[in-house]
């Protein structure tokens, strides 16, 4: 009989402990189950931390990888479920900054905790979080605040301050929004293309919120929306710098530039016949636009290359070539041909150095032109042989 009484008392004690460990208020199952509800039931928290498991029928709660079932029981069911479901306040912070989450308390508090989703950060002054960036700032009768240093994007989400005041559970929600300034992470390299080619530029950027991307051409000030800028059949006048601008309103826009170079064969633009006095100085000019820069050669009307001597010099500059006569003599009068070339092609034009008042035939070349098929072929062969 004694053994039966002892066994009965043990069974009754086990049943009582189980009831204590597993009872939660009826309002618990009507709200989103979170670990903060356990804070008002210290025994259940202790048992949860020890890995206890209650198998009575009721609401399941999955927290920290452990599944615990609680049966309905007596509790402070006067709190409305709506109290736990109001919209949270938003708190915005830049990535890398620090933020303080404040919980104002104006009533007598017996238990309090900070949670991030279902993870307990602080239970009173006890730190549960393993993150060294999270610290307790204040824990007094009016303020229960925590700080997160060097905020990362992963910290974004809901935070809950849960406390029990006057035997009533209270919670305050805040939703942490982490913003990241717009930043260009990949962009086209500078491009060198031939006239008539198609050009495709791209610019990729990241940020929170999602940034916008705009292309701007500096020559005409035009704007193009989107990550990609496509130019078909590009012309020489479209060679310029294009700027990618990305912005999400968090910080000043991030900008990068891409230079587009358009290659084309030489085009001679400035040729002029020149009168000259015997014994004086004279200059013949030949200007050619080209990318890459053109190289220049001069020829006499009998296709002889012009060479430097004590009375004549050739001076080549970036876009033009000068034929300088330091002392004009009879042998200098006549027709001269300027030949400009680069790897894409060649162009030539003829001009006269003449004595003032001299009469020349109408066929004499007085403007830029190709100086005859024979000269053109001869000069072309000469260039090819040099290449």
TrEMBL record:
PANTHER family: IGLON FAMILY MEMBER 5, IGLON FAMILY OF IMMUNOGLOBULIN SUPERFAMILY-RELATED. This is IgLON family member 5. Belongs to the immunoglobulin superfamily. IgLON family. Keywords: Disulfide bond, Glycoprotein, Immunoglobulin domain, Repeat, Signal. It comes from Astyanax mexicanus. CDD domains: Ig. It comes from the Eukaryota. Residues 76-172, 181-261, 266-354 form the Ig-like domain. The lineage of its organism: Eukaryota, Metazoa, Chordata, Craniata, Vertebrata. InterPro entries: Ig-like_dom, Ig-like_dom_sf, Ig-like_fold, Ig_sub, Ig_sub2, Ig_V-set, IgLON_domain.
């Amino acid at each position: 009989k004694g053994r039966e009484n002892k066994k009965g008392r043990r069974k009754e004690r086990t049943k009582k402990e189980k009831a204590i460990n597993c009872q939660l208020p009826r309002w618990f199952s009507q709200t989103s189950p979170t670990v903060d509800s356990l804070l008002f039931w210290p025994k259940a928290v202790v048992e949860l931390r020890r890995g206890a498991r209650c198998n009575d029928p009721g609401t399941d709660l999955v927290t920290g990888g452990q599944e615990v079932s609680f049966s309905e029981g007596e509790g402070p069911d006067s709190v409305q479920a709506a109290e736990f479901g109001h919209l949270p306040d938003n708190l915005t912070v830049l990535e890398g900054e620090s933020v303080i989450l404040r919980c104002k308390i104006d009533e007598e508090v017996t238990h309090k905790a900070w949670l991030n989703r279902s993870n307990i950060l602080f239970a009173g002054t006890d730190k549960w979080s393993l993150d060294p960036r999270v610290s307790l700032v204040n824990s007094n009768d009016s303020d229960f605040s925590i700080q997160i240093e060097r905020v990362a994007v992963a910290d974004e989400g809901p935070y809950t301050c849960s406390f029990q005041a006057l035997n009533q559970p209270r919670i305050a929600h805040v939703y942490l929004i982490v913003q990241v300034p717009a930043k260009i992470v990949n962009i086209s390299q500078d491009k060198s293309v031939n006239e008539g080619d198609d050009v495709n530029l791209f610019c990729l950027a990241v940020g929170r919120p999602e940034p916008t991307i705009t292309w701007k051409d500096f020559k005409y000030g035009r704007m193009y929306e989107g990550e990609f800028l496509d130019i078909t059949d590009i012309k020489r006048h479209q060679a310029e710098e294009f700027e990618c601008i990305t912005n999400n309103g968090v910080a000043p826009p991030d900008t990068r530039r891409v230079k587009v170079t358009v290659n084309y064969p030489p085009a001679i633009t400035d040729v002029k016949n020149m009168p000259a006095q015997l014994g004086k100085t004279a200059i013949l000019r030949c200007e050619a636009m080209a990318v890459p820069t053109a190289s220049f050669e001069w020829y006499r009307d009998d296709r002889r290359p012009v060479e430097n001597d004590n009375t004549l010099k050739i001076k080549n500059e970036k876009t033009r070539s000068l034929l300088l006569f330091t002392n004009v003599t009879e042998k200098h009068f006549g027709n001269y041909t300027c030949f400009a070339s680069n790897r894409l092609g060649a162009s030539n034009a003829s001009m006269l150095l003449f004595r003032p008042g001299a009469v020349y035939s109408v066929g004499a070349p007085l403007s830029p032109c190709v100086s005859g098929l024979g000269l053109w072929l001869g000069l072309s062969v000469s260039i090819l042989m040099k290449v």
